[in-house]
Amino acid sequence: MNIQTWQRLDQEFTQFPIMRALEIPSEEEIAEAAAAIGCTFHEDYVMFLRRYGGAMVGSLPVFGLRPAPVTGMPWHVVEVTKWFREQGWPGVNEWYVISDDGFGNPIGVAPDGRVMISDHDSGLVRLLAKNFEEFLLHHCLRAN
Question: What is the pLDDT averaged over residues 28-51?
Fold first, then answer.
């Protein structure tokens, strides 16, 4: 991600520290999480985990390996991804689920890095962003 995106995130978490996890996962934990769901995390997401662990960014959660205090929930990328896969949501078998849209629809990163959403009302999978950074900028940080 570019430096301006990191600066925007850092500014948000400095102003509202309860929006990010209190602990940062180890490199080993990050690798184990990716292996547990049979995927490779893209570098921008790995860097996000290394810096923040997990967070609420704007109005959307970004599932990680640690909960953000504001959520009150232990959203973990492995648990959430497995749950949506077990439920048979279209598209998620190839993704790691990084968020939801607030209406229960999973948002995940496909093997090629695109960020997708699986919509339960239409049964369709559609593109949200070309990559994780674009997702953060256009769907999470846009109101800031």
Answer: 97
